[in-house]
Amino acid sequence: MRKTLLITLLITLLLASCASVDKHNLQISKLHSVEDLHDDIDDVYDQLQRHHPHLYQFTSRAVLDFKFDSLKHAIDTPLDSRTFYKQLAAVTKHIGQGHMSLSPPSQRFSRKERKALRKTKFDINNLDFEYLDDTLFISNARGVDSILINAEVLKIEDETPQDLIKKYSKIIASDGYNTTFHNRVAGHRFMSYYVNDKGRFDSLKLTLRNSDSTFVKHYKRVLKVDTTAIKKDSIKSDSVKVEKPKAIKLTKAERKAKNKANKAKRKYNRNYGYIASRQEYTRNLNFVGEDSLVGLLKIRGFSNGNYKDFYDDSFKTLDSLKTDVLIIDLRNNFGGRLNEITYLYSYLTDENFTMINPSEVNTRFPLLKSVMSNTTPNVAKVFAGIMSPVFFTLDLIKTKKKDDKLYYKFKSAKEKVPKPLNFKGEIYVLINGNSFSASSLLSTKLQGDERATFVGEETGGAYNGTVAGFYKVYEMPNTKVRARIGLAHIDAPHKTTPDGYGVKPDVELLPSYKDRLQSVDPELEWILEDIAQKP
Is there a contact between 180 and 460 (Cβ–Cβ < 8 Å)? Predict the structure, then answer.
């Protein structure tokens, strides 16, 4: 009897899941009525007004009201979800907060379909892109496509990348009035924007130019090759009996040494933030220059790995080698953890410091609001419900009212002391339009404290802060378009005028496509030349 009930329950859940998938896919592909589209516009604007603490910082309420109303008047025929997403994103970008983003709904798959998809691969994901001098090119590639590095993309299917990026720039939001972010991020995240624009696809045609050769490269989703099965099949088909090679038996000491080496490798990968899918590390410390005595700290992001051990080891190395010049490369660093940049800064100063101000919020319970969004999975909601007394208490302790405004105090808003091995030498920082969020906050602090010389391009993240920290991800009821809404205004103690721009370099240098073809890094080369000219 119990077995029958269990089978019945499993079948019911399976059917319900299939029905849910079908319902979702129908919802995103169908044409929504004008009334439903207007309702979603009103709903998302209401969510923004309730939760976003600096909604009218860069665009006045009157102007933003007008833009949302104009969108409603412009939508007078039914639209599908993806078309609606593009039109709405062209309005929300005027909020001027790069962390506030929209995303179109994606197709869902049944359990059987997901299992089949996991057995496939799509090698277009091995390519990275960059956009310089109105040219989209392959900046990096993994696997066999490594020969395509620096190849210019002439067409994607039958469209030019210039036309596509021009279209995508209309919906990309940056902090304030900054413009350096647009082309930089459109190139760096080109495939993400392409998917948002076109929807899911299983094949893609690229027209490429490499040197003087123009050719077409086709990418398709294909089954992964099971090398184990190939070996078994080849053994079976061979008429000669193949003996398996005998496994080499390790001694106890050899096993112990092997385990120790594997453990050390895992620790190294954690500390340096190894990303297996990209075959690269998040953090690296190298030495450059004529005598290889200039430290180069390349940080691709602040969101991965055990950063404390990495920075402890790195600055211990810099101290032991008596390094007196350090270059910090924050180009294409989109940010991450506040705690990490605070920890890093404690090695870059010899004075007590406060990384950020208390963060303005619109609610006393930002943490609770973020975990109880309508997009939070039911299982997570149950967990959040159980933990709600803890979240409630944390929010009450950390949120204070001052001058009729609410402020949430992150750990980074507390005064910190410098590390004993803090770096006392000269610092250069490399920045570009993709230096965003936490990396631009770190840049603001370094520039405000006159601690570094900045080389490159204005950061995409604003000097005077951004709205991030916690997020409420709201799904619109009709179109299923999602809005990610920042809940806390994060800013460093330093301010600049006019408001709405990024950290500007002391030396502005922009790379070109020709530089990439010749493997030249003009920003880094300028720094090394500047160092060489000094006594």
Answer: yes
pTM score, two decimals?
Answer: 0.89
Least confident stretch, 119-128, 306-315, 431-440: 119-128
The H-or-E segment that residue 49 falls in is helix 34-51
Chain centroid, CA 341 distance in Å: 16
Q: What is the model's pLDDT at position 10?
A: 42
Beta bridge partners of 458: none
What are the pLDDT digits (tens) for 272-298? Answer: 999 988 889 999 999 998 877 899 999
Strands (E), 55-212: 101-103, 120-122, 127-132, 135-141, 152-156, 203-210
Predicted local distance difference test score (pLDDT) of residue 12? 45
Q: Which percentage of the chain shows pLDDT scores above 90? A: 70
Quick one: which of 224, 225, 230, 226 has its CA closest to 120?
224
Stated length of the chain: 535
Q: In the numeric block, which tokens belong to residue 136?
A: 């989209």
Indicate the residue type of 331: R
Distance separating alpha carbons of residues 184 and 190, to the nearest angstrom: 10
Residues 472, 477: Cα–Cα separation, whole Å: 15
CB 467 within 8 A of CB 362: no
Backbone Cα Rg of the chain? 26
Q: Which residue has the tokens 């001694």?
A: 251
Res 246: pLDDT: 65
Cα separation, 123 vs 484, whole angstroms: 29
Helix axes 190-198, 161-168, angle to 10 degrees: 80
Among 174, 165, 167, residue whose Cα is nearest residue 101: 174
- Asked if residues 371 and 474 have their Cβ atoms less than 8 Å apart, the reply is no
Backbone phi and psi for residue 324, each to the nearest 5 degrees, phi listed first: -115, 0
Please give the helix or strand (H or E) that residue 222 lies within, else none: strand 213-223
